[in-house]
Amino acid sequence: MHISNKKLISSTLERHILSCIEEYESIKNKTNKHFKTVKEWCKTRGFSRQNFLKIYNRYKQNPVSTSLVPQKRGPRFSTRRIDLSIENKVIEYRKRLLNRQTIASILRDEGIIISDGTIYNILKRHNLNRLKKMDKPEKHEKKSFVVSREDKLFHIDLHQLSKGITIENSNQTYYLVGVLDAFSRAV
């Protein structure tokens, strides 16, 4: 007969907690020889009173051994999942290359309140959270100025000089100005 480690651990834990419940009830009835208060007992046993009382109350409501073992935490999967029709709308909008903020605002206009994070989770679940190169719209070419002759377009740069580097004890601020002709590149 083969017993898995998980089953062995659960049965050991059940026996331990069951003995702790008996000891706890003897403290409550003031028949325990070693402990006078529950606080002292919890400190000695090494667990918090709140966690023990959670297990104790669960066992009192349903006195079976499975209620002594830690339960699955968190919400049920189906209760927090977004409606399938909304999920399909999100996917449809994403296929039109819209980002999640735009999708959220469109759905808000339709009366559906949904967060950007939820939209991201839906897109990630359907592997649509990143656009592939072929999905992205074409980038526009950068516009550049074409200069046909001198003195039409200049590039200007301005730099404030630090006090103390240029002239000592000066109350004035000095600037260095650079002007470059775009056609001839003459300074």
What does this structure look like?
This protein is mostly helical and 187 residues long. It has 3 domains: 61 residues; 45 residues; 43 residues, no CATH class. The protein is built from 7 helices and 2 strands, in the order H-H-H-H-H-H-H-E-E. Helix 6 crosses helix 7. The termini are far apart.
List keywords for this structure.
187 residues; mainly alpha; two-stranded antiparallel ribbon; 7 helices; 2 strands
Structurally, the number of domains stands at: 3
C-alpha Rg, in Å? Answer: 36 Å
- Shape estimate: elongated
How far is it from the N-terminal to the C-terminal residue, by CA? 93 Å
* Strand segment tally: 2
| Main sheet makeup | 2 strands, antiparallel
Q: What is the N-to-C succession of helices and strands?
A: HHHHHHHEE
Side by side, the strands of the main sheet go 1-2
Task: Decide which structural class fits the backbone.
Answer: mainly alpha
Helix content: 40-55%
Low-pLDDT segments: none
What is the number of helices?
A: 7
Mean pLDDT: 81
Strand content: 5-15%
Summarize the topology.
Blueprint: H1 5-28, H2 38-45, H3 49-61, H4 77-80, H5 84-95, H6 100-109, H7 116-125, E1 154-160, E2 175-181
Antiparallel strand pairs: 1-2
Helix pairs in contact: 6-7
Q: Can I get a quick summary?
A:
The protein is about 45% helix and about 5% strand. The chain is mostly helical and about 190 residues long.
